[in-house]
Amino acid sequence: CSSDLCTAVVQSGSSPAGIANGTSGSWTAVGLAQGSYYWRARAKDAAGNQSAWSGTQQFTLDTTPPSTPTVTGSPADGVRLNQPPTLSAVYIDPSAGTGSLTFELCAASSCAAPLLTNSGTAGSLPANTTGSWTPSFLFDGLYYWRVQSTDSAGNVSAWSPVLSFTVDATPPDAPVLSGPNGMRVQAAPVLAGRVDDPTDPGDSARIFVQVCSDAACTAVVTSGYSGTVPAGTLASWQAPALGDGTYYWRALA
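User: That's the sequence. What structure does it adopt?
Assistant: Structure tokens below.
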């Protein structure tokens, strides 16, 4: 029916005859347009006696899939991280219903080989809200990901475009220092170090330098970062003006 009082019947039908007492019968409506409907049922025995109508129940027919989810931009496509990122996207549904987001990690940009052991869902999302999922432990490497929406009626959207990120949780080697050591200099020196990353030679890096007043570097006088350079090359930092005295310095990559 189109109303809760069933004053306007849209369709009607009967289950197959011969249902045993205490068992269920069913009937499927066909060709309904999208919208809200009400339904009720009554029983009829083999002698033709009919029961009263049951109470009225309601359902909504929704055959329109939600829109392709919008990736929020965090993490940025192609980003390098030292831990698994939190993946986020916006659930969009023109019918304003609730739904869920399914995130899928893949081994290739085609996503023909999804890593199904590392897929996740963000559920019970109102339309136009953000859902997120964080993968469990990931080995170092390049990963691809995409996301799909499913509304409360079970309609599924297209997959989002495939994005990527790289997990790199292995630190580079300690830098090989290049600069004054035991020397007397007239001005604040340029302090440098070679940055090597044997596990990822195509990476880039920078050094962080500390200038200290003692050999253990318990008292840091000044510090700073170099610019970023390709792995296997020298990164340098210009120390600021320093007063006369003896200084110690060290760096990490």
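The chain has a mean pLDDT of 93.
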